[in-house]
């Protein structure tokens, strides 16, 4: 008999079926016992009256893997309106050792460190797995939106000969006796690949030896990177980002409806045109001094409130960040070269995406590095490529875990990461 | 005027259009000059008769980025039957320095090391970019096939506290003062996630400190990993692999038709049922001694010829490899415990995929490690999870670069890798 999933039971009322999954919960009443089986699709209720079957169920602790054959019976009081009656119950492995928290309670009551220490079982809780399902759907939407617009997926090196972007926060390793570093981003590679495909994206791990222990930082996270050529300026990049975000949320709605329901979430709307303010204007709105070089978290919160109040939007672009606070490859605003063609996207008052137009002329790279007092040599393989013809281009990067945390309202990115890596955590 | 791609020119005969791309080639004849522009979609021919425009074109070396506005004219002798006449040509950047090889020739004549040293420009050659387009399409097909079958995409740590699978060939790094290693595979994590989602996959980098300099090995490659629970045995895994391969090839056909044409390739057929032979039978077919513990490359070639001759198949499963040659988490064949429920998939006489059923009982892990004289401690976080209820499960891993190399007939995996990493190469 073919196994069916719990979600298919409603289509088999009256039939004998086989299900399999984990013992999620047992409720041993006087005259009847209920066995709740959890599988990939959800929960199924099994009603046990036979004393021998009941004895078997009593010997199977929570999380034991079982197979149940029974008859599907309609019962309006059961979950999804159906239950399995007159079952036979067969374990598919030895009795499980229950984890140090109850997976059947609506919320995991264990502390986050305990959950992370026991990730293989904590992730089985419906709230934890729901966040990862939303994450998977968001990535699928990211790719679908970009595939539909002629982007090509790339895979780039995660070990590099010199540290990218800045010398700080890099992990050093021994590469066959030579010093090497874990890549902090695919920034240089995605730009070089614009010369090949014009439009590229990558989904992959990036590594930051972040010495701070915060709720927002991971030492490894999943970066959703995009780069496109033949742009007029950063606004063409912002338009692609808007389409990409809309695609991500549409795919979350389409693929992860059950996960959204589990977490009680309503997805935000992406406006047809996301409101945008220049950095200097943003400072005024946030009530910050006009000479601030960057936006503090409190400023971002004020801007988020303003965007919701004035534009009914959860999203807000801030453009024209001062050049001093952006990386050396950032393209300046030609009309106002102290400010950049770089932008941030705020979501509900927090920075979600950073992007912008990049330099595309070889001489501009040499000048930008010289102006910062940085040598060219560590960047040679990257900078040299701009001698061979690169179009005006730009791009952006979305941190997947932050995106999901903000979407789900998780207070800590570790709640939406399967096996987080940070200053303290290298296992499991 | 909106830019259009070269592939759209045929829809605009008689109209004035704007294209942009790289100067692919210039042919300066006496009375006329031809400018071939390369963009993401292919090549466009521009006919120049005006002396001033000709002078401009003469000053723009190959690989300079240009924008051309002109009238689309039908010309049966031009590529795709159209060309641009009476053009204006405007550079979008400074004149390019041409790379040390001609990108307009049908094949790149530079040696592979030269190509790899100059990857940002070498990858612009249509044969090199075609392989990467096939790669992107294959990965898209991999995901689509698995998404349709209820698999969930995961992202797992690439830095681990102890080396996985074997102590050899690992890269060591300094993790905030603690020793750590680059992950050789997501094997343990994908198994643990079967406990959460039943069916999972991951596309990500894996790292092997492979000290041999061969045409088949990279120190970083992209692994397509799959794991699924509630299997009867390895044959359920093989069935999913067959469907996944068929999905990959279907997506290559659908998305990368132009790339296949560029490389002159015909895709193999995946039989509805891929023929399978047991390891002991495989030894006989290959004419190998009955006590051989593994298949040598010559044996695999003989088996590939046999599969084509006897079954008309480019693919052949070999099942039941001796336990001694498989990793400790391999599930033995219950009827013949010296042999495993592990398999390899051969493609045209070369190993393409390794997979099998895994152990799922905690006590079996302890016994397997003890039998090999290995301590449990380095594997504790992994092995302990099996106390908490894991279903019978199995999976497989496809090396993306090897898959594409075999599909395209590339002699060296580096030919189908954008920026390879190996014993000698850490740049660009």
Automatic annotation (TrEMBL), chains A, B:
<feature type="site" description="Important for tRNA non-discrimination">
    <location>
        <position position="79"/>
    </location>
</feature>
<dbReference type="InterPro" id="IPR006195">
    <property type="entry name" value="aa-tRNA-synth_II"/>
</dbReference>
<feature type="binding site">
    <location>
        <begin position="399"/>
        <end position="402"/>
    </location>
    <ligand>
        <name>ATP</name>
    </ligand>
</feature>
<comment type="function">
    <text>Aspartyl-tRNA synthetase with relaxed tRNA specificity since it is able to aspartylate not only its cognate tRNA(Asp) but also tRNA(Asn). Reaction proceeds in two steps: L-aspartate is first activated by ATP to form Asp-AMP and then transferred to the acceptor end of tRNA(Asp/Asn).</text>
</comment>
<feature type="region of interest" description="Aspartate">
    <location>
        <begin position="187"/>
        <end position="190"/>
    </location>
</feature>
<dbReference type="Pfam" id="PF00152">
    <property type="entry name" value="tRNA-synt_2"/>
</dbReference>
<dbReference type="GO" id="GO:0006422">
    <property type="term" value="P:aspartyl-tRNA aminoacylation"/>
</dbReference>
<dbReference type="InterPro" id="IPR012340">
    <property type="entry name" value="NA-bd_OB-fold"/>
</dbReference>
<feature type="binding site">
    <location>
        <position position="358"/>
    </location>
    <ligand>
        <name>L-aspartate</name>
    </ligand>
</feature>
<feature type="binding site">
    <location>
        <position position="351"/>
    </location>
    <ligand>
        <name>ATP</name>
    </ligand>
</feature>
<dbReference type="GO" id="GO:0004815">
    <property type="term" value="F:aspartate-tRNA ligase activity"/>
</dbReference>
<feature type="binding site">
    <location>
        <begin position="216"/>
        <end position="218"/>
    </location>
    <ligand>
        <name>ATP</name>
    </ligand>
</feature>
<feature type="binding site">
    <location>
        <position position="165"/>
    </location>
    <ligand>
        <name>L-aspartate</name>
    </ligand>
</feature>
<dbReference type="GO" id="GO:0005524">
    <property type="term" value="F:ATP binding"/>
</dbReference>
<protein>
    <recommendedName>
        <fullName>Aspartate--tRNA(Asp/Asn) ligase</fullName>
        <ecNumber>6.1.1.23</ecNumber>
    </recommendedName>
</protein>
<dbReference type="InterPro" id="IPR004523">
    <property type="entry name" value="Asp-tRNA_synthase_2"/>
</dbReference>
<feature type="binding site">
    <location>
        <position position="208"/>
    </location>
    <ligand>
        <name>L-aspartate</name>
    </ligand>
</feature>
<feature type="binding site">
    <location>
        <begin position="208"/>
        <end position="210"/>
    </location>
    <ligand>
        <name>ATP</name>
    </ligand>
</feature>
<keyword id="KW-0436">Ligase</keyword>
<dbReference type="InterPro" id="IPR004364">
    <property type="entry name" value="Aa-tRNA-synt_II"/>
</dbReference>
<keyword id="KW-0067">ATP-binding</keyword>
<dbReference type="InterPro" id="IPR002312">
    <property type="entry name" value="Asp/Asn-tRNA-synth_IIb"/>
</dbReference>
<dbReference type="GO" id="GO:0005829">
    <property type="term" value="C:cytosol"/>
</dbReference>
<keyword id="KW-0648">Protein biosynthesis</keyword>
<dbReference type="GO" id="GO:0050560">
    <property type="term" value="F:aspartate-tRNA(Asn) ligase activity"/>
</dbReference>
<dbReference type="GO" id="GO:0003723">
    <property type="term" value="F:RNA binding"/>
</dbReference>
<keyword id="KW-0030">Aminoacyl-tRNA synthetase</keyword>
<dbReference type="GO" id="GO:0017101">
    <property type="term" value="C:aminoacyl-tRNA synthetase multienzyme complex"/>
</dbReference>
<keyword id="KW-0963">Cytoplasm</keyword>
<dbReference type="InterPro" id="IPR045864">
    <property type="entry name" value="aa-tRNA-synth_II/BPL/LPL"/>
</dbReference>
<comment type="similarity">
    <text>Belongs to the class-II aminoacyl-tRNA synthetase family. Type 2 subfamily.</text>
</comment>
<dbReference type="InterPro" id="IPR004365">
    <property type="entry name" value="NA-bd_OB_tRNA"/>
</dbReference>
<comment type="subunit">
    <text>Homodimer.</text>
</comment>
<keyword id="KW-0547">Nucleotide-binding</keyword>
<feature type="domain" description="Aminoacyl-transfer RNA synthetases class-II family profile">
    <location>
        <begin position="142"/>
        <end position="428"/>
    </location>
</feature>
<dbReference type="Pfam" id="PF01336">
    <property type="entry name" value="tRNA_anti-codon"/>
</dbReference>
<feature type="binding site">
    <location>
        <position position="354"/>
    </location>
    <ligand>
        <name>L-aspartate</name>
    </ligand>
</feature>
């Amino acid at each position: 008999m073919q196994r069916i999933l719990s979600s298919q039971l409603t289509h088999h009322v009256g039939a004998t079926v086989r299900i399999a999954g984990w013992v999620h919960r047992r409720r041993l009443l006087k005259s009847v016992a209920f066995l709740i089986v959890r599988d990939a699709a959800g929960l199924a209720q099994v009603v046990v009256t036979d004393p021998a079957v009941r004895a078997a169920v009593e010997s199977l602790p929570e999380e034991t893997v079982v197979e149940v054959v029974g008859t599907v019976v309609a019962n309006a009081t059961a979950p999804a309106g159906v239950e399995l009656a007159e079952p036979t119950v067969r374990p598919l492995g030895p009795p499980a050792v229950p984890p140090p928290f109850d997976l059947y309670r609506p919320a995991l009551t264990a502390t986050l460190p305990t959950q992370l220490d026991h990730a293989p079982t904590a992730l089985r809780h419906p709230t934890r797995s729901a966040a990862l399902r939303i994450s998977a759907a968001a990535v699928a939407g990211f790719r679908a939106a970009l595939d539909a617009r002629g982007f090509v997926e790339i895979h780039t090196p995660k070990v590099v000969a010199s540290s990218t972007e800045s010398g700080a926060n890099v992990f050093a390793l021994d590469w066959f006796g030579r010093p090497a570093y874990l890549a902090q981003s695919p920034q240089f590679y995605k730009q070089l690949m614009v010369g090949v495909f014009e439009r590229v994206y990558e989904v992959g791990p990036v590594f930051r030896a972040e010495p701070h222990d915060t709720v927002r930082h991971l030492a490894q996270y999943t970066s959703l990177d995009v780069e496109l050529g033949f742009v007029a300026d950063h606004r063409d990049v912002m338009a692609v980002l808007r389409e990409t975000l809309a695609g991500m949320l549409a795919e979350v709605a389409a693929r992860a409806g059950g996960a959204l329901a589990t977490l009680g979430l309503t997805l935000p709307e992406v406006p047809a045109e996301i409101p945008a303010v220049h950095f200097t204007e943003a400072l005024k709105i946030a009530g910050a001094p006009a000479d601030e070089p960057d936006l503090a978290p409190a400023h971002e919160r004020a801007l988020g409130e303003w965007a919701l109040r004035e534009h009914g939007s959860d999203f807000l672009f801030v453009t024209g960040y001062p050049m001093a606070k952006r990386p050396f490859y950032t393209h300046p605003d030609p009309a106002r070269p102290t400010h950049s063609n770089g932008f941030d996207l705020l979501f509900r008052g927090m920075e979600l995406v950073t992007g912008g137009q990049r330099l595309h002329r070889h001489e501009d790279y040499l000048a930008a590095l010289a102006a910062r007092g940085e040598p060219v040599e560590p960047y040679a393989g990257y900078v040299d490529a701009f001698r061979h013809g690169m179009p005006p281009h730009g791009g952006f990067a979305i941190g997947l875990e932050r995106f999901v945390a903000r979407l789900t309202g998780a207070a800590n990115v570790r709640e939406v990461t399967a096996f987080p890596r940070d200053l303290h955590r290298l296992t499991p």
